Amino acid sequence: MNKVMQFLETKVMPTAQRIGSQRHLLAIRNGILSTLPLTIIGSFFVILLNFPIAGYDEFIADFRPVLDIPFRFTVGAMALYASFGVAYALAGHYKLDQLSTGLLSVLAFLITSIVPVQVTEPVAGVIEAGRWLNISSLSAQSLFGAIVTSLLTVEIFRFFIKRDIRIKLPDSVPPMVANSFTALIPTLVVIVLFWLLRHVLHFDINSVITLLISPLKDFLVGNSLFGGLLTIFLIVFFWALGIHGPAIMGPIIRPMWDASILENMEVFASTGDAYNLPTLFTEQFIQWFVWIGGSGSTLALVVLFMFSKAKFLKELGKLSFLPGLFNINEPIIFGAPIVMNPILIIPFILAPLVNGVVSYLFFQFHLIPMIMAKLPFTVPAPIAAIISTDWTIMAGVLVILNFCISLAIYFPFYKMFEKQHLEQEKEQSQSKTA
């Protein structure tokens, strides 16, 4: 076991840290995370539009078009906001003008994602003549195209700035004005490049990227049990090494997670049917049914610690309970510690995998509808599970069941760990009295 841990520490950990700190992956993660408030608030409007009460649909029928607007301009335009966020984050790494690059990225994304449509038949009260823009192209379906477009835009901008190819103004000119002129040449190049690709050569970047990424997305964040379990395993595996699991996996899987939950929300908003949504293994599936108390299903271990005979474990359990209740488990992960701990690593990895299988079966047998909302990660799991599955009480029951399963898995390993601490405390007590 010691040799295995040494191998992981010396070989695997450095590689994982390099991947997690790669600038483009970090920009993707941070840029998409910046849209989190929009998706969360958009989720509440999805819930508001589809409240499971008899007669509710008839009650809001006259107001539905107005109530739908916040959803359409948050979740429905998420790729647009992500294009700015990703470019802003990457430009910050390069120490470029973040505002200019962010706006330029939005422009590039709009050019590549929307094709203006000429009006041939006027629609009374909507449009009589001219051209209209289909904003559905700004939703989750274009998220991967927005990411690639943003990264390319920043790299083009950096290419010109690094080689000092820009319009220079005297030092007396205010910085905001000077930055605007600095961006003129890169802006021209970006517009012409993406205009030629999309509207002259008819090369759809988003469609190509989506086609290339779809097999991986369908595997890791689709409806495949093996793919879902692989995602869960990798996150807890990195945590066990002392590396923030979501930070390593996030840049790769978060765009897939966000695209999937946004697709679920859009389908649910239009159909009201939570049993037939595109994706099962969303981040929220793992958050509410697998991570009970945080990665590794650690709330069960926290509760066991609270009743421990070992003083240290009991105090740590008490201190970790409130954060764990709100899905924050760094105190227990680094306090026990679970990191690089050959005893606690086993249930830390095993419990979430078992929870994942049990939850998968509940969803497969349609005992619970699929996830149709994105709530803050700090909402206690039973409550969030009920709300995000269209107010299904059975979802809360499943959370409690998985918590009990986690307790059973952690218990024998906890007893071994407790025995070690009791022996250490006994030795310390004897040394003080000697």
Secondary-structure blueprint:
Layout: H1 2-20, H2 23-33, H3 36-49, H4 56-60, H5 64-72, H6 78-94, H7 98-113, E1 117-118, E2 131-132, H8 143-162, H9 175-182, H10 184-200, H11 205-220, H12 225-240, H13 245-271, H14 283-290, H15 299-306, H16 311-325, H17 330-335, H18 345-364, H19 381-388, H20 393-433
Antiparallel strand pairs: 1-2
Question: Would you give an account of this structure?
Answer:
The protein has about 425 residues and is mainly alpha-helical. It folds into 2 domains: about 75-215, no CATH class; about 220-434, no CATH class. It has helices at about 1-20, 25-35, 35-50, 55-60, 65-70, 80-95, 100-115, 145-160, 175-180, 185-200, 205-220, 225-240, 245-270, 285-290, 300-305, 310-325, 330-335, 345-365, 380-390, 395-434, and strands at about 115-120, 130. A two-stranded antiparallel ribbon has the order 1-2. α3 (about 35-50) runs parallel beside α13, α15 (about 300-305) packs across α16 (about 310-325) and α19 packs antiparallel against α20. The longest helix has about 40 residues, at about 395-434. It is globular, with a radius of gyration of 25 Å. The protein starts with a helix and ends with a helix. The model has no long low-confidence stretch (mean pLDDT about 85).
